[in-house]
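ugh ok fine here u go
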Amino acid sequence: PLVRRKEELVLMDANARAKGKELEERLVREAEEKAERLKREANREASSCEKSKRKRLRRNAKKKGERMVREAKERAILESDRTLREARLSFGQELRSVCARLEAKNEERFRRLPAELWQKIVDENVHQNDMVALAMTCRFFREKQKDLGKKLVTD
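structure:
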């Protein structure tokens, strides 16, 4: 169950990113639609005006539409960042607790083995060059490596 929860937390982070991207696309699409509507309205209104006023109306509609799209992108980025930050904060807190519980559970299991058995496992199965990798695997193996008096030397 703890490993499954860890995987759920990783998926939660990915989902937060995907939702942010969807939000950005939706806001930009809506702004582009509004901008297009403004252009059409300006064209409709400009058809009955003189040439200089027509150009000004179209130019203003275009500028306003571009501004709306730009602001929508900025809002989407801010909202996406906020959502992702919140998800990562809760993700980090919960992942730490899940990892701590997993580590405690593993340590409880490993401590059951007597020191002589650990000595035999390390002597028969772990080459000197692999001691560094074993020690880097987890805190418990690092402590065992120290307890057994094995040096971290590679050739």
